[in-house]
What we know:
The chain is an alpha/beta fold. It contains ten helices and ten strands.
Amino acid sequence: xxxxxxxxxxxxxxxxxxxxxxxxxxxxxxxxxxxxxxxxxxxxxxxxxxxxxxxxxxxxxxxxxxxxxxxxxxxxxxxxxxxxxxxxxxxxxxxxxxxxxxxxxxxxxxxxxxxxxxxxxxxxxxxxxxxxxxxxxxxxxxxxxxxxxxxxxxxxxxxxxxxxxxxxxxxxxxxxxxxxxxxxxxxxxxxxxxxxxxxxxxxxxxxxxxxxxxxxxxxxxxxxxxxxxxxxxxxxxxxxxxxxxxxxxxxxxxxxxxxxxxxxxxxx
Length: 268
């Protein structure tokens, strides 16, 4: 699966790359969120904020159909990424996940060498040429600021890296597959402040080359790094999108009382 070039991160434009319409997710009889209509601009960073249990992570999981792996999980509505109808059952979900990568809350490197962490996904996706693999490994590690830190120990265990280094390695692993969208589920929540700052700097450096969605409970972080912010909330036991807009709109002139209360600390 490949998105048309015209849909891929046109730097300097505000063309929505991702659009959801009446998106609803149910786990059995439980509705995680309902009727979410949200557009994410190409090449920008969008922060999803709101209290725990309001559907932010579940929303991310819909975008690359990780929900397919959950029993009794049903997704209704529409997800458009470029010209791609994500919920079309004829779509190759594995190819989709290559183009829409996911970084989880806790770093999850493979219990292998740093090198193997990057090589294995490439080989699984059909890249066999050693010179090409070498080039991708160096490029992605450089992109995430790890190359100078690990170039002399590429064949040592990735588990020996610090938490922040492990998270950057996981991001490098995703970038090696040349995604167009990167989903980040609280990528800094398990890290110390210094490591969090390094990961934040990395995320902002990817702006323009990728479209990024980050779930965060850290409003200051959202304000620092995001272009767009979307507030989710639980109403009547169901997650809802309350408001979305630019950072300035959400933090300086919110339209919904819940948004105003949340960003000022009066709620949540």
